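Renewal narrative, Specific Aim 1. Our central claim is that a sequence can be written position by position from structural information alone. The example that follows is taken directly from our test logs and has not been curated for this report. It begins with the structure tokens describing the chain, in the order in which they were read.
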């Protein structure tokens, strides 16, 4: 089971949308067989994600989603934590403004875009990436499988 800690710093994400993101992430965790795990999702404005992107990635522009994986610790660090059975996967930060812009750009709902960004960030936490064409095909294919299983097929190319 996945525990999701949701924080809306913008005050623009409805309870329904927060519940939807939680449902999408629960499905992704089930599909990826994460077992007992925790993740946090924070919804921010473009300016906040721009600052995070600049500080951690050296890119001074807003982006749609950023993930910070916490499972990249070496074996010794994991041992110090006591070997808890609950996996603390990390943090996903989503720009609400970018989600709305991209939903309009790709011709699908804002909710669908939130779902896409949540799954995209979640898969990054699990080690997926899209630096090569092969990695991109694997990651975007997995995203599509998860979203399609929830009836959220993609009409256009995803974000990022």
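The sequence written for that structure reads:
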């Amino acid at each position: 089971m996945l525990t999701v800690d949701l924080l809306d710093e913008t005050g623009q994400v409805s309870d329904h949308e927060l519940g939807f993101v939680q449902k999408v992430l629960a499905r992704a965790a089930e599909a990826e067989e994460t077992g007992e795990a925790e993740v946090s999702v924070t919804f921010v404005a473009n300016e906040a994600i721009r600052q995070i992107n600049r500080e951690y990635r050296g890119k001074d522009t807003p982006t749609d989603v950023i993930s910070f994986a916490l499972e990249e610790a070496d074996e010794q660090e994991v041992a110090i934590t006591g070997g808890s059975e609950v996996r603390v996967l990390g943090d996903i930060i989503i720009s609400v403004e970018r989600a709305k812009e991209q939903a309009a750009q790709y011709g699908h709902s804002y909710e669908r875009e939130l779902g896409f960004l949540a799954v995209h960030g979640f898969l990054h936490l699990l080690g997926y990436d899209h630096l090569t064409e092969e990695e991109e095909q694997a990651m975007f294919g997995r995203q599509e499988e998860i979203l399609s299983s929830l009836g959220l097929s993609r009409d256009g190319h995803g974000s990022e």
